[in-house]
């Protein structure tokens, strides 16, 4: 186009009226997010910037959209806390919306957030499995950080828990306290978390020239943990430790062991994963477990968004260490003055 593009040219390319194009470029909420996206893309394509309209449509709002598929808040709420701590220090705020794991609802939420002029998006999963990246047309060029569930596109920025490291540390710790007949009770084999934790465990077994007595896959449930623990003791009478890949499994395993007269941790030590209070701290005995460090994951995601807005985008996968919390299921409760107050002894290994 030899002449300077006009608002009418933008409207024509976006297939909307001139009035609608004006509203879209002025960032009003009187047009749909999809229409606004089409108009902004048309303006960029034509190089339209008269009266600085395009600048106004893409100006910073100080808002970051946080979209989660976590319907019960186990992951989303601590991640939101971490993100808000970092964003608040830079005069930003987060808007939280739940997609309930439905792609169509996720897209609708992104449209709504884009219409509100958010500066970036943090997409939070709850499975650890990789997910399809968002369509660039949908995100309108906004920086996107994928948290907990990584994007399948290695060029994207993803932040995940170090499940491989947790698995390796779990077996190293059990070996360090003298356990030699160690089994692993896992969830479904098609979960990346299960694969990674088993992979880490296997690396430590190989490093110290040991091998697990068994690795069992099934469900993320107490029922499976209880059933698997009974089966393991029946098949391997010398069993002295179980690495459970979730706290639900671990609490079930503990119940199964106690029911057949096994003492925890004297006879069999147990390690879980997730540090979910209702299972880990509310179990008897309390569970040694790994914390997914979700708050730190949220802080990191927020910092990466701010870096991208400052022209320093991150790419690839970043892992966040899962600290180990030692409780009664691997070592006897220590006698301390705190016991008189009813507080449970805990020790964190970084």
TrEMBL record:
Q: Name one GO molecular function term.
A: DNA-binding transcription factor activity
Record key words, sorted:
DNA-binding, Transcription, Transcription regulation
Q: Which Gene3D superfamilies match?
A: 3.40.50.2300, lambda repressor-like DNA-binding domains (1.10.260.40)
Q: InterPro entries, per this entry?
A: HTH_LacI, LacI/GalR-like_sensor, Lambda_DNA-bd_dom_sf, Peripla_BP_I
Limits of the HTH lacI-type domain: 5-60
Q: Does the keyword Transcription apply?
A: yes
Query: Would you indicate the residue range of the signal peptide?
Result: none
PANTHER family registered for this protein in UniProt: HTH-TYPE TRANSCRIPTIONAL REGULATOR GALS, LACI-RELATED TRANSCRIPTIONAL REPRESSOR
Question: Lineage from the top down?
Answer: Bacteria, Bacillati, Actinomycetota, Actinomycetes, Bifidobacteriales
What is the protein name stated in its UniProt record?
A: LacI-type transcriptional regulator
Listed CDD domains:
HTH_LacI (cd01392)
The UniProt record lists the keyword Cell cycle: no
């Amino acid at each position: 186009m030899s002449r300077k593009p006009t608002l009418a040219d933008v409207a024509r390319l976006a297939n909307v009226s001139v009035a609608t194009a004006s509203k879209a470029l002025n960032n009003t909420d009187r047009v749909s997010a999809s229409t606004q996206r089409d108009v902004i893309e048309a303006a960029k394509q034509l190089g339209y910037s008269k009266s600085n309209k395009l600048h106004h449509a893409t100006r910073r709002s100080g808002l970051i959209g946080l979209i989660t598929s976590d319907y019960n808040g186990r992951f989303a709420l601590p991640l939101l806390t971490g993100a808000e701590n970092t964003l608040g220090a830079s005069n930003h705020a987060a808007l939280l919306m739940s997609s309930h794991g439905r792609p169509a609802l996720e897209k609708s939420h992104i449209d709504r957030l884009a219409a509100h002029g958010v500066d970036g998006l943090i997409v939070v999963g709850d499975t650890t499995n990789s997910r399809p990246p968002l369509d660039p047309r949908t995100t309108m060029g906004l920086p996107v950080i994928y948290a907990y569930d990584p994007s399948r596109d290695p060029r994207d920025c993803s932040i995940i828990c170090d499940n491989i490291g947790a698995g390796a540390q779990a077996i190293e710790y059990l070996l360090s306290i003298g356990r030699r007949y160690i089994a692993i009770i896992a969830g479904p084999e098609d979960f990346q978390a299960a694969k990674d934790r088993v992979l880490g465990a296997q690396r430590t077994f190989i490093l110290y020239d040991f091998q697990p007595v068994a690795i069992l896959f099934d469900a993320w449930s107490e029922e499976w943990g209880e059933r698997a623990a009974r089966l393991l003791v029946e098949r391997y009478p010398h069993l002295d430790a179980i690495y459970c890949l979730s706290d639900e499994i671990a609490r079930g395993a503990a119940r199964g062991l106690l029911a057949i007269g096994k003492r925890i941790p004297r006879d069999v030590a147990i390690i879980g994963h997730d540090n979910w209070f209702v299972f880990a701290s509310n179990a008897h005995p309390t569970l040694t477990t790994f914390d997914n460090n979700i708050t730190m994951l949220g802080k990191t995601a927020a910092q990466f968004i701010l870096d991208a807005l400052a022209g320093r985008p991150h790419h690839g996968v970043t892992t966040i260490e899962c600290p180990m919390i030692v409780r009664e299921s691997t070592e006897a409760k220590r006698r301390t003055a705190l016991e008189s107050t009813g507080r449970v002894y805990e020790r964190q290994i970084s």
